[in-house]
Amino acid sequence: MRDTRESRLLLVLLIAIAFALITVDIRGGEDSPVDGARQGAATVFGPIESGVSAAVDPVGNAVSAIRESGERHDRLAVLEEENAALKARLGSDDRSRSRLKQLDKMLKIAGQGQYGIKGAEVIAIGAAQGFSWTITIDVGAGDGIKRDMTVLNGDGLVGRVTTVGPSTATVLLASDPDFTVGTRMEAGDELGFASGQGDRPLRVELLNGKAEVKKGDRLVTFGSQADRPFVPGVPVGVVSRVDPSGGGLTRTLYVTPYAAFTKLDIVGVVVEAPKKDPRDTVLPPKPKPTPRPTVTVTVTPSAEAPADGQNQQEQ
């Protein structure tokens, strides 16, 4: 449109009408005469805006789809829907398949334990924290992360949040020698404390020195007061060795953790604890014993050799 006197007058008139409508809308409050038109516009253009947003950010951060999985109501169904959406968004290359598998396992743990989690990616290991076993994740205070929150992945307990920045956080891994978590034996309910030993199995001191424990028994987190730093029921590991009881007040176990601390990629921070203790429901199914083949040896008697005397007569 050419810049003419008529066009300038039309522009001034439109601006005046706009200010008049804004004034009427503000003074009208909830009974504003333009409220219906505004709602109609939101109904028409809202889905378009959402669609454009999804189109311009097809994957972004693959973990963002589970950032807000903390709703209690029908949480398992919500997590399953988010998992299906992630499968549709991620590609088919090896890297994406590996990350999708991790996300899938973590979502299942969150659903089984009814944990509200925020997904995160590991972006650094703990060189900045001295010789501690730590990782840095890409969520922080802006994502609702706070100090002393439980961190897990699709295998089990990873650690706890120790330092929180605006957009990142530091996690102390369960393998760190300064890490301690209360544990509970599966089914038997024997309580103890697990401590990290670097790249060696966790060391667990059971409070009952006469507890009956064997190799292959499993442990979960006992939980903390107000669920911080640890929520209950998170898988910890499997007993790999039991020290002989020496008649002491405690009994020492060595536990192979479920989480592989040297291969962490996708983790979840528990921002909402379950309403009730999930007990052992989050533990993976027990492996079925492999049957050992039985070999039966049948001895077939050989024909008896003829006597010497009989041989001589035949000759």
Automatic annotation (TrEMBL):
UniProt superkingdom: Bacteria
Disordered: annotated span: 274-315
Pfam families to which the protein is assigned, alphabetical: MreC
InterPro entries reported for this sequence: Cell/Rod_1, Cell/Rod_MreC_2, MreC, MreC_beta-barrel_core
Statement: the UniProt record of this protein carries the keyword Nucleus: no
Keywords: Cell shape
Segments forming domain Rod shape-determining protein MreC beta-barrel core: 130-270
Metal-binding among keywords: no
Family named by the database record: Belongs to the MreC family.
General function of this protein: Involved in formation and maintenance of cell shape.
The name this protein goes by in its record: Cell shape-determining protein MreC
